[in-house]
C-alpha cells in the first residue's frame, strides 16, 4: 500500500483538546437548537450526502453549512455511495467533487469528508468489499486533493469490530476468490472472528488524513431492547481490543493520524432497567475521559450521534440523544465544562445565515392546522344542508354500501402506493403525516375494516354461516394472490434480465431488529428460498412459503388482511349481540399485550411490519 504523509489541512487539535462534534436529525433539529439545549456549541457538525449527489441535496447541504457557519463550526460530510463501489471511477468522482466544491465554496471552516463509513459491516451497501472500497476511497481522495486539498480532510472510519464479521454481505468476496484472501487475514481459509476487522479496508496512509471509529454502547446485540449501565473501561476496551486489533494504536498512534470517535449510548424509554441519566452520564464520562486521557492523545474529535430511532416496527423507541432530556443535558454540560474538549466557535462566524426548520408542525402551528382541518370538514358537511343551491352535492345513495367510505379507501390506496415508491414528490407531502394524523397503511386498514363491517355486519345475525363463507372466500382469494406474487417475484429474480433487488431486498432505515446501528443494512426477503430447487427440498421451505415468510415487503400487508378477514365474523357476531364493551375490552387487552411483549402469533413476514396483536386494533 502506498505510504507517505497526507496533509490534514490546518485542522489538527492539540493533544487533550479534541473538538466536540454532533450529528443531528436535520429534518427535526438545528445546530442552534442543539447548542442551546447543551449550553455549548459543538466545534463540528455532521451531515450525510449521497454519491452521486441527489437532486434535492444541494439545498439541504447549503442550509447545513449555513447553520455550521453561523455558529463558527467545522463541517463533516458523510459520503454514502448509492452506486456500486466499482462504478466510482474518475468521471463519477470528478462530478461529485465539483458539486461539493460548488456547494461549499463560501464555507469558512474545514470540511471533513468521511467516505462510506462502517465499510467493514454487512448492513451497508458498500460493506465488506475491501478491494473495491479501497479503490473507491483512493479515487475520492484524489479528486478532493486535486481541487481543494487544503480545505478538505479525508476521514476513514470503520465500525467497531467486536462482532466482526457480522452477517456476511451479499457482495462480499466468495471463498476461493482473490478478494476473499483480503478478508482472510490469518490465511486459515476461513473468514471469521479470528480475522482482522479493520486492516482489509484500510486504503493507505497517503490518502487517509484522519482515522475514525463508530463505537456505541449497546448491549442488545440486535435482540430485545435492554437498558444497561456501561461497564467500567468499556470504551477503552473498544478502542484498544476489538476486531483482533488495537485500533487506536495501529491506526492513530503508529500512523500519526488524528482520531475521530463517533459514539452514543442506547436508551429505550419504554424498556425497564437502568435510568437514562445513569446510562448516558456514564457513557458521556467515558467518552470525555478517553478523549482527553494521555493514552489517547491523538483524539481530535468526539462526535455524539444526536438522533433517535425505533425498532420492532416502531414499537420500541430508542433515544440516543444527550440533550433530549433537560436533566441529562444539564449534567452533560457540567461535565463538559471541565473536560478539556474544544467547543465553538472555532472559525469566523458568518452572521445572518438562515437555519433549516423542521418539516413538521408543532406547538400552536400544529393545533391551528388541526383546527383548520376540523372547520373545513364541518363546512363540507353543513354546506349542502344550508345552501339550497348546493343540495345536490349531498350524499343520497340509498345502497347499503357507502360509496364515501370506498372513496376514502381508494385515497388510502393512493397514499400507500406513494409511500411505498419512496420517491420525493408533492404527493408525498400529503401521505406521510405532514398533514393529518395517520399514514396510508393505517388509513387503509381502518377503512377496510369499516367496509367489512358495513357489508357483512347487518347479515351476520340472520345468516352467520353465509358471512363465514363469504369472508373465507375473500380471504382465500387474497391468500392465493399473495402466494402468486411471492412466487412470481422469486421466479423473476432468477432471470438475469430483470432487476428485482427493490422487491427481493429491504434496506433497514434503523427500525429493524438491529436498531440504530443497523440503518442502511440490506436484508434478503427470499433468503433460503433458492433451496426449493435442491433435492431433497429442505422440509422447512414449503411451510415457510405457505406461511408467507418470503415475499416483497411492499406486499406483505396482504397476510394481515387474510388473518383479520378470517376472524371478522366472530367479531361482527359479538357486536351484533350487544357485546361491544367486551369486544373493545378484548381488543385493548390484546393491543396492550402486543405492544408490551411484542409476541408474534405467526412466523409470517407481515408480523415484522404489521404485528397482528397491535394492528388488529384498527
Description of the structure:
With about 625 residues, the protein is of the alpha/beta class. The N terminus is likely disordered. The chain has 2 domains: about 325 residues, Alpha-Beta Barrel (TIM Barrel), CATH 3.20.20.80; about 220 residues, no CATH class. The chain contains 20 helices and 12 strands. Helices cover about 40% and strands about 10% of the residues. The termini are far apart. The strands form 3 sheets. The protein has an 8-stranded parallel beta barrel, surrounded by 5 helices. It has a two-stranded antiparallel sheet with strand order 9-10. It has a two-stranded antiparallel sheet with strand order 11-12.
Question: How much of the polypeptide forms β-strand, as a percent range?
Answer: 5-15%
CATH homolog superfamily of the largest domain: Glycosidases
What structural category characterises the helix and strand content? alpha/beta
Write down the overall geometry: globular
What's the gyration radius in Å? Answer: 28 Å
Share of helical residues: 40-55%
Count of helix runs: 20
User: Any guess at the CATH architecture of the largest domain?
Assistant: Alpha-Beta Barrel
Instruction: List low-pLDDT spans.
Output: 1-9, 353-359, 433-438, 510-520
What is the number of strand segments?
12
Q: Using the coordinates shown, work out and report the CATH topology of the largest domain.
A: TIM Barrel
Mean pLDDT: 82
The biggest sheet, with number of strands, parallel, antiparallel or mixed sense and barrel status, is: 8 strands, parallel, barrel
CATH class group of the largest domain: Alpha Beta
